[in-house]
Amino acid sequence: MESREGKEPGPSKPLLTLLLASPRGFCAGVERAVRMVELALAKFGAPVYVRHEIVHNRYVVDRLRRLGAIFIEQLSEAPRGAHVIFSAHGVAKSVIREAEERHLVSLDATCPLVTKVHVEARHHFRADREIVLIGHAGHPEVEGTLGQLPEGAISLVETLADAAAVSPRDPDRLAYITQTTLSVDEAGAIIAVLRHRFPNIAGPRKEDICYATTNRQEALKRIAPGSDCVLVVGSPNSSNSQRLVDVALKAGAKHATLIQCAAEIDWKTLNDAQVVGLTAGASAPETLVEDVITALRSRFDVDIREPSGARETVTFNVPRALAS
């Protein structure tokens, strides 16, 4: 390293190879949902109410809050006649009815791939099939999907043990659907149990786990085996981000951790690291990844490598009410 004239060279930084997963970060459904809030604020003015976090990322939510969005958990928190946006995770039919009863002007930012699962559930119900939903209890997407049909029409399966305990009235009239943000491998194992037990079980023509979740997990599998530590940028309540931590560990990373931003890096875990993997959940913006890279460069001489991955070209249009 060359020094400036009259100054001694500073201490050299330790070398660090940074493996960037590609693709990573925002997916088309998240981009659409965030854009809908921005457009609604521009068209109708603040405040615009958003039921639940529009996507599970604190940075995104805080930025929209500064622009004038008000995030609520119950529609009763919005005044009658207000503009309200349903989050990308989807909502139960009862929420839509309540919005109508309160004369709220509602805009639905549900990811189209989640809507696809809702359509599948209704199709199976009309075909008089019992339905099992593979997903995580309490997640907003799961609550929204369960709420598409009368109570009890869909049973939740979370684990292999749950799959082994499924007891339908008619084994030949059973169907499954899944949450879109699951671990591909874990969901596949549960589906395998169901298919083994019920060979005639009906499933989606195209798997419900969304393309972005699948692509981000596959990209991580390419870099995790050679990583001493994997950093996953995302929020603790983000299912797809949490799954990336699991995927990294199962794929061979020596250590993996979820961080919301660069300030949460535990530098002790990187003391002896020579290779670090970096990715971001589908609701985490690229600016947070860039902040992590800047933080790493402040302590290491970073060599960035980005193995090529799936090329994503999917886009989802916003509703006409906002596009005009």
In order across it, which strands form the biggest sheet? 10-9-11-1-12
- Number of distinct beta strands: 12
Main sheet makeup? 5 strands, parallel
Tally of alpha and pi helices: 11
Percent of residues in helices comes to 25-40%
Mean pLDDT: 94
| CATH class bucket of the largest domain | Alpha Beta
Q: What is the ordering of alpha helices and beta strands? A: EHEHEEHEHEHEHEHHEHEEHEH
* Oligomeric state: single chain
Number of domains: 3
Structural class by sheet pairing and helices: alpha/beta
Spans of 5+ residues with little confidence (pLDDT < 50)?
A: 1-9
Could you say what the CATH topology of the largest domain is called? Answer: Cobalt-precorrin-4 Transmethylase, domain 1
- The rough form would be described as flat
